[in-house]
Amino acid sequence: MSDSSLREKPPITKPAERPRLGITAMIPCYNEIACVERAYQEIRSELAAYDDVELLFVDDGSTDGTLEAIKGFAAADPRVKYLSFARNFGLEAAFSAGFKYASKPWTVQFDADLQSPPEEMHRLVDKALEGYDVVFAVRENRQDPWYRRLGTSGHQLIARRWLGIELPPGASVFRIVKTSVARKVVDSRLTTPYFIATAPLLGARYTTLPTSHRPRVDGQGKWNLRKLVSHAVELFVGFSFRPLVWLSALAAVVVVAGVTVLALALAGRFGPTELAEASLVTGLITLVTLAVVARYLVRMMRVQAIGVPRYQIREANIPIRADEALYGYETPYVGTEVWENAS
Ligand code: UDP
Ligand code: MG
């Protein structure tokens, strides 16, 4: 995995007139009843600048009436499409589905809570037209709690500096992506899903653009500490083998230290207390090693499961693939059992 410099490549297209771009505005929503109406209104008014648009809501298993609100928009506005998951499958699954079912050449991903103002989309569009496949917004003066900001910069720094993972620095989920490229990224079987790390691996031309940021307009953030940590760990083990390499080096150090301690004990220079302390340290190192190896095993299992759909769709107002639809197979199931006639 190469170094984390941006791929500043020469433009491949001339900036065209904005209005003629085909754009899918994709909005993942999980229990966003407090924001979804305002999101629809704001995004719709920005889309008025373009001729060929659709709004694709991905309801990630909401239980608070978000889907009913979306259906209301769809009833009044034929450009509104929606997919509704059978349960909450997580943001990564939601936007993966959004990219797959987007029907326009470009997809802009929005947040339903409007933290990244929809009016910034035009700057993303203009930047993309300079010749990029993906333009990631970077939140200027990010309006989230300090631990969220620290968490993001911390884990991105570890990923880039220590683990050699190429990541667009500070990239948020507010972004414009060439839909065909986005589909490649979400269908990629390279490793575990993680959009901002997979796009560079595939060679997508990407850049970042600072955009304004504001607090959530209403409702609750969906991230807790457990989700944030597991998202970071997924990035580390999904895109770098360096921790495993470090474990081999650690094993060599522990062996040398162990042999030295043993020699000192035999020579009578180490008593039972020192030996007990040395065993404790070795035990702790073994536990850490096991934990790291366990994470890689989980990763392997996840990669094996990549062919299996990451989500199931319960309802939609567009055609969906049978294997991704909870009620998708219409032919009756035929079992393999042969029932003997008892008489
Ligand atoms: N979201 C989702 N599924 C989830 C969590 C979040 O679709 O499991 C959506 C959410 O409704 C919102 C966007 O992802 O539109 C960003 O979520 P949130 O505002 O909670 O994230 P933050 O801004 O705190 O990073
Ligand atoms: Mg938010």
Automatic annotation (TrEMBL):
UniProt keyword annotations, A-Z: Cell membrane, Glycosyltransferase, Lipopolysaccharide biosynthesis, Membrane, Transferase, Transmembrane, Transmembrane helix
Domain Glycosyltransferase 2-like as annotated: residue spans: 25-183
InterPro entries for this protein: Glyco_trans_2-like (IPR001173), Glycosyltransferase_2 (IPR050256), Nucleotide-diphossugar_trans (IPR029044)
Enzyme class (EC, first level): transferase
Top-level taxon in the UniProt lineage: Bacteria
Bilayer-spanning residue ranges: 244-266, 278-298
EC annotation from Swiss-Prot or TrEMBL: 2.4.-.-
One example GO MF annotation: glycosyltransferase activity
Record-linked Pfam families: Glycos_transf_2 (PF00535)
Family statement: Belongs to the glycosyltransferase 2 family.
The protein's name: Glycosyltransferase family 2 protein
Natural source organism: Nonomuraea guangzhouensis
